[in-house]
Amino acid sequence: MVQVGLDYTLFIQILQFFIIVFLVNIFIVKPLYSTMIRRNDKVAYLLERAKAAGEAVEAKKTEYEAKLAAVRQEIYEYQNTLRADAAHKAADITERAKSAAAGDIDKAVKDIEREITRARDKLKNDLKALSEQIVLAVLK
After folding, report:
1. Within a 10 A sphere around the Cβ of 137, how many other Cβ atoms?
2. Apex CA 120: angle with CA 119 and CA 123, to 5°?
């Protein structure tokens, strides 16, 4: 059987182990841990900034949509105003055209009545002249 002796080399190995653990802790674990902490802090900061930027984008988007809705409403009102003005102008033009047509019709009716009166007067005069010629022809 193998016998294990407890001599001074075991204490040296234990001492070496603790020195190695201490050095690994100082040169590897602590720098790695601090690097991870800084990275986590930076990631948290960047996430916070990204969240703030997202909220700013949403706010701008909401503002843009509100302004767009206001502009669309203004355009709608302007179009309605233009339509109302056009309808009013069309009604005015139609009314003037009706008035002008009524005036032209009245003038034409008066002209026709004058022509009828002239034609009657001429027919009366022609009828008198013809009657006189007939009476003269009969009396002769």
Report:
1. 8
2. 85
